[in-house]
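Action item from last week, closing it out:
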Amino acid sequence: MPEDDSAAEGAAGTSAPDRSGATATADAPATADAPAARPARRRRAPRPDPLLVEARTTAREAVAGIADDDQVGEGHGVRVEEDRLVTHLFECTLPGYRGWNWYATLARAPRSRTVTVCELGLLPGRDALLAPEWVPWSERVSPEEKARAAQEDDTGDEPDDATAEPPAGPAADPAAETAAASATDEPDAGAPSAPQGPAGADEHPPAGEPS
């Protein structure tokens, strides 16, 4: 019995702190159990790939596929994009493209020495000639031009006197039109008609009689 009592007391003593701890946790604010936010990891700079950096000839040959030899100038260096991904830049000598550069982006797979051309094209440099930024018509037009355009729209809806159709007259009478048409087809009643001989004069005389 003493052993059972001590065991019961030990069990009761052990369970008491748990109950108090559970009560304290329930009363604590919900944000107390949330883990602290970890600071954002700083992204390391990409490392230049020696194999891709040295593949300048491969990049120039790729650019020669879309431009003539006299349109590709000297190289402007290499730009590291990502690990195993670099871009070679070459001067563009096309007329009107001052400050622009031909570019060829190269890449390779991990543990592979095969250089792959990913992309080709033209990129503007710092002193490149660029088209001005597009401005909507509503912002670049002056108030006078807006008023003139609105006036032209208002006057454009009205019909022009020179091209306007004449007003429709009274409805024509079909019977009158028919009578007028028949009068033009018949001869004039006052004009003398051709003389006509006795009845049967136009017939041939009987045989033996003078005509």
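Closing note: Strands lie at 72-82, 85-92, 100-107, 116-124.
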